[in-house]
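Technical annex B. To support the medicinal chemistry partners, we prepared a structural model of the target in complex with adenosine-5'-diphosphate, based solely on the information shown next.
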Amino acid sequence: SETTSALLYLNGISVSFDGFRALNELSFVIEPGEMRAIIGPNGAGKTTMMDVITGKTRPDTGDVFFEQGKYDLSTLDETEIATLGIGRKFQKPTVFEMHTVEDNLQLALKNDRGVKATLFWKSSPEQEARIDEVLETVRLKALRHRVAGSLSHGQKQWLEIAMLLAQDPKLLLVDEPVAGMTDVETMQTAELLREINRTKSVVVVEHDMAFVRELGVKVTCLHEGSVLAEGSIDQVSANDRVVEVYLGR
Ligand code: ADP
């Protein structure tokens, strides 16, 4: 069945904060190799969902099965989940502003197993090759010796995505990557995520519908902590309830 072949299977997840249900029996499936866009109004539970997947928040009820049911993430802590190959990009860029692009990637690589990173360790040839590869992917090769603080907002977001890629996750969770980006950067980010999705599964939370359309992937719309609608962007944006609670008329 689709649930046993799933890369990620959220099964009846509920989370309450002081009696308020942020997630209400949320269930959905991400297939191996898939990229999924998650949309929904403020307060729908998108951030809480990401927090549950990464182990930052433990669900009150439900299971989070990863890799064909091999692991139940709801029983693991954040470090264990990261080690299984789940990388998360928060909305705001958090690069080391005083370090160069290349050194940011060195630090990301060395932090792979949760060890406190230092630039004094010499990189292996494999690590150097990996840095070249991810710089190529995010198209920041020409800026590798620039201090990260001097990059544009969009370039910092791409650098942080590269830092996650350096750790070679199986599943990349990306929270509102194009907020604050120019239109050109937004479209380049869609292209970048599609390229990343050739080898990795991706879940991206986003409000920018032009960007979601550009991704061209299956969309899940959350509302009041559960799935309101799921399907292509055309199907979801034609759904009356989605229009009512999210898109507006
Ligand atoms: P979204 O990311 O879709 O905007 P969230 O997951 O951030 O939604 O929030 C879902 C609901 O849960 C919101 O009403 C929010 O106020 C509430 N909530 C989220 N985190 C907490 C928390 N730590 N304590 C209390 N309420 C919270």
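Notes passed to the chemistry partners:
Residues 17, 20, 22, 40, 42-48 surround adenosine-5'-diphosphate (CB under 6 Å).
The CA atoms of residues 35 and 185 lie 19 Å apart.
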